């Protein structure tokens, strides 16, 4: 391959929240003539193929572990290091076989980053959420949340530490402390957010590039929406994503809270929840296992969400204010950040009551949250998206092309 058309090897975390932002980037690289190969699991094979990239199937343990919802950040640390221990030799062999010019790794795929480091291959991190640093959330609520995470996660943190030591002894590679592990910073990092949204961007140098999102505002016209026969009136949309959508209690509270809302209340509940658990539905409720989310957001006046970064980004791009019911991992942080920036509000407690939900929806509909969401969405759209990410990845490969002849001359 020529330096301008490098061979790229991608290590993904096989969950929709991490794969979806990378698919347009892979497609952009393929369009430029790059030879792109991506790891994944069978359930995402069609998505990988749609980008034009080749698929390398992960060892079975990755599919087994990656789809399990973690209980918190300590659990995530343990999961990532134990998976790295198991598949690092496989990753190194894959890179030796593929001989890429540059490796792209999800921030939550440390096995790829360490394999690239072991072989001296330039590495680009893809951070699908905010780029982590030690002072990421210095609010009182954030600090209290961290204390609770540490207190409840001590057994997981101990197992993570033992796994980290074994990797260091066996490979002379360090997965890093909890912040470094979860941040996953590499030679260059593409952050799927904007500088305006990123908390504390001053903590990073020019190696972190803000590419925003490849998501573009959708048309509110969609055949599936026509088939739903949505009634007139302001639409409220609720979804808890793909990993944390078994919360029938939250969905019931939403339905009760908005039973008198003068417009449709659309719930996307996923594949694991029995709709019967929701009880008798109000007349304005429309419950589906899945919906064309972007088209729904194009019609929505408010979005009740768990606060996953993908869903949050999609809400902002469509200028929809959000009501957050965060579940775990980075979701509380994302929720607090968007609320602090004026584009949403955060519900309290494990299962918010209907009155709290009703008040929160009314607040974001009648305040300036909608205008603020549109402003933040514009900041995401202005960053360049997939094309900007492809520029960064090719830049990393070009650096290697310059360094290798220089090293040979020396």
Compact description:
This protein has 410 residues and is of the alpha/beta class. The chain is built from 17 helices and 13 strands.
Describe the structure.
The chain is of the alpha/beta class and 410 residues long. It folds into 2 domains: 232 residues, Glycogen Phosphorylase B (Rossmann fold), CATH 3.40.50.2000; 159 residues, Glycogen Phosphorylase B (Rossmann fold, 3-Layer(aba) Sandwich). It is 47% helix and 14% strand. It contains 17 helices and 13 strands. It has a 7-stranded parallel β-sheet, sandwiched between helices. Strands 10-9-8-11-12-13 form a 6-stranded parallel β-sheet, with helices on both faces.
The gross shape turns out to be globular
Give the C-alpha Rg. 22 Å
CATH topology annotation of the largest domain: Rossmann fold
Low-confidence stretches: 404-410
How much β-strand is present in the residues? 5-15%
List keywords for this structure.
410 residues; alpha/beta; Rossmann fold; 2 domains; six-stranded parallel β-sheet; 17 helices; globular
């Amino acid at each position: 391959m020529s330096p301008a058309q490098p061979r790229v090897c991608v290590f993904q975390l096989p969950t929709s929240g991490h794969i979806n932002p990378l698919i347009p980037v892979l497609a952009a690289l393929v369009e430029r003539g790059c030879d792109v190969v991506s790891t994944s699991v069978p359930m995402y094979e069609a998505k990988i193929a749609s980008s034009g990239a080749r698929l390398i199937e992960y060892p079975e343990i990755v599919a087994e572990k990656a789809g399990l919802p973690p209980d918190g950040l300590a659990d995530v640390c343990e999961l990532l290091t134990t998976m790295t221990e198991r598949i690092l030799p496989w990753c190194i062999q894959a890179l030796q076989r593929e001989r890429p010019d540059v490796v792209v790794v999800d921030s939550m795929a440390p096995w790829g980053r360490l394999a690239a480091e072991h072989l001296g291959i330039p590495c680009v991190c893809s951070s699908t959420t905010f780029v982590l640093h030690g002072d990421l959330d210095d609010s009182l609520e954030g600090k209290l949340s961290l204390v609770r995470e540490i207190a409840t996660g001590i057994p997981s943190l101990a197992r993570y530490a033992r796994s980290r030591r074994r990797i260091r002894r066996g490979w002379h590679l360090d997965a890093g402390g909890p912040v470094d592990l979860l941040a996953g910073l590499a030679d260059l990092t593409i952050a799927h957010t904007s500088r305006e949204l990123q908390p504390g961007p001053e903590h990073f140098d020019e190696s972190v590039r803000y590419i925003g999102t490849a998501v573009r505002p959708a048309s509110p016209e969609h055949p599936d929406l026509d088939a739903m026969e949505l009634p007139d009136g302001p639409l409220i949309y609720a979804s808890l994503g793909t990993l944390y959508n078994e919360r029938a209690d939250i969905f019931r509270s939403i339905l009760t809270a908005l039973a008198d809302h003068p417009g449709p209340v659309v719930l996307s509940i996923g594949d694991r929840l029995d709709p019967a658990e929701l009880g008798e539905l109000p007349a304005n409720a429309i419950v589906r296992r899945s919906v064309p989310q972007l088209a729904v957001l194009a019609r929505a006046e408010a979005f009740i969400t768990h606060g996953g970064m993908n869903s949050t980004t999609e809400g902002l791009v469509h200028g929809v204010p959000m009501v957050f019911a965060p579940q775990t991992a980075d979701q509380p942080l994302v929720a607090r950040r968007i609320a602090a920036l004026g584009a949403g509000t955060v519900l309290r407690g494990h299962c918010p009551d209907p009155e709290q939900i009703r008040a929160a929806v009314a607040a974001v509909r009648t305040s300036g949250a909608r205008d603020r969401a549109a402003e933040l969405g514009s900041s995401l759209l202005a960053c360049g998206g997939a094309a900007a990410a492809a520029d960064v990845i090719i830049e990393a490969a070009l650096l290697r092309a310059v360094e290798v002849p220089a090293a040979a001359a020396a």
